[in-house]
Design brief:
CATH class of the largest domain: Alpha Beta
Strand content: 25-35%
Number of strands: 14
Structural class: mainly beta
């Protein structure tokens, strides 16, 4: 069964070792690394081919609560505690979606695998609705079309109904207080790259200019907006240092395994004004997990 997980964005900026965002490797066109939620999920063997639609799939019942945006919700199963996910947090859920005529178009339950994604990567109705929930809670969402796919070709049309169970929440990285400019205790290279060690690593081995590495990272623009995070996706990135922006190629060679550093990368060492990429100086927190080769 095809997954229709309500994804809007391709948040990732860096790449796995098979991809080349710069276009330098074999002159391939830039390719974005998909988030885990974007990857096609295999169909798990199951006796379930379709889950029955709720009796109230056609319209929210009187006991449902409606928000100012038009989203209607109803708690089916209470959760635990009082902690709600934030708009950038990583969540793990089970869900099933129906159109208002009772046709099921997607279900993680049928696939037998939970879905994980950041709340800023999905349709507006999910971003809003999941923030109302606490772990362990199951809630039914009636999402009007303007908060769903907005008539996108190939997507389920009209109002959509989802049963969502929030299995877990991983908080998004906090924006550092010094993203606007490198602090006085940072170091600089002759290229203009600034960096600061946040946690020392182990040993003395550092990557080479073409090494294959595994890292966790988060990236912000200087106004504090996070544009990408492997931490939020819950999956480290793996890539070669000759396949990423120059600031990463240079900066990672300064690190040892286990080290976490913050880099202030000027635009000339970042995306250099490329359309669709974050502009200006970028700030990354990077933890070097492994030098593969």
């Amino acid at each position: 069964m095809q997954s229709w997980l309500p994804l809007l964005l391709s948040a990732s900026i860096l790449v796995s070792c098979e991809q080349d965002p710069t276009g330098k490797l074999e002159k391939k066109a830039p390719v974005e690394m998909p988030t885990q939620a974007q990857q096609e999920l295999p169909t798990a063997p199951s006796v379930l081919s379709e889950l029955p639609a709720p009796a109230d799939v056609a319209a929210p019942p009187p006991e449902a609560t409606k928000t100012p945006s038009g989203l209607a919700t109803l708690v089916i199963q209470p959760g635990n505690g009082t902690d709600h996910p934030g708009p950038r947090d990583l969540v793990e859920v089970h869900y099933t979606g129906w159109t208002t005529d009772g046709k099921m178009f997607d279900s993680s339950l049928v696939r037998g695998k939970t879905a994980r994604f950041s709340l800023n990567q999905v349709i507006s109705g999910w971003t809003e609705g999941l923030q109302l929930m606490v772990p362990g809670e199951k809630r039914r969402l009636w999402i009007p079309e303007n908060l769903a796919y907005k008539g996108q070709s190939g997507k389920p049309p009209g109002m959509l109904v989802f049963d969502v169970e929030l299995m877990g929440v991983t908080q998004a990285p906090v924006t550092p207080p010094d993203v606007a400019a490198p602090p006085p205790d940072s170091k600089r290279t002759s290229s203009g790259l600034a960096w600061k060690v946040l946690k020392p690593g182990a040993g003395t081995e550092t990557p080479g200019p073409a090494s294959l590495v595994v890292v966790h990272y988060s990236g912000w623009t200087t106004d504090g907006a996070m544009f990408d995070s492997s931490v939020s996706r819950g999956k480290p990135a793996r890539f070669r240092l000759d396949q990423v922006i120059p600031g990463w190629t240079e900066g990672l060679q300064l690190m040892t395994v286990g080290e976490r550093s913050r880099f202030w990368i000027p635009e000339g060492l970042a995306y250099q004004g490329r359309p669709g990429k974050p502009a200006g100086m970028l700030v990354f927190d990077v933890e070097l997990l492994e030098i593969v080769q």
